[in-house]
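Contributing new records

If you add data, match the layout below exactly. Sequence lines come first and carry their own label; structure lines follow with theirs. Keep one chain per record. Anything else will be rejected by the validation script.
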Amino acid sequence: MTETARSSISAFVICCNEEAQIRRCLESITWCDEIIVIDSGSIDRTVEICKEYTPHIRHNDWPGYLKQKEFGLSLCKNEWVLNVDADEEVSPELAQEIQQILAADHRGEVSANGYNLSRLVFFLNRWWNKGGWHPEYRLRLLRRSAASWGGLCPHEKAIVSGKVEKCHGDIYHYSFTDLTDFARRSNTLASNTAASLVALGRTTKLADLIIRPVTRFFKFFVIKKGYREGFAGLIVALIEANSTMLKYAKVWEATVVNKRSTPKKPSKTLTTTNS
């Protein structure tokens, strides 16, 4: 059977200490013509596993999400590029859909320069097709000549000039191992986002600490129907709301508390009693 002619595609993955997940990720993109891995200093078996799938493994000290993905994009040789994170997996349906797009592009029938892909989260032993995380589109399939990387770290994003369309298939996203991991990552995300906001001169208002967290909870639990997941939906909505509050609390800490001069130590007047 003759293989359908299609445009070539490069895939790149950034990672560090992802031995538990990287094989699943790379297995899902073996159909790509080039796989590039950018590792920022793994001390586990991540690099060893990656060598089973590609010779194109580069070390690059961690410069932040935005710069690391810019670096990954610069290494890709083909015009079409797919970006997948180490904790993600391209579903068979999406893989087939992308290859159909590449075949159509080979025939000169594709006018889009990029495609938004929907991520489907797996957490607490369930797929979250409701509850705030779905649909969650990311611009991950793009023409290299029309693309750059931007956004606010850690919320980096691909930027494409020209027409952008959507794919129907999902990227499976294995975001968190358990609630402890979720809470820890939420705190880290809040810290990184707060640092970016402070760098931009952002300050905290009362509404940031009250209205924004409530809005976040309402979006996850009500609008996105998180209530249909019972306690799991409630817990996720609460942690998301807390992460939002914590983000702006950290901005306040950096711009107000840490700007104050060191206060004098309180002194106590000692009283003595006659025996």
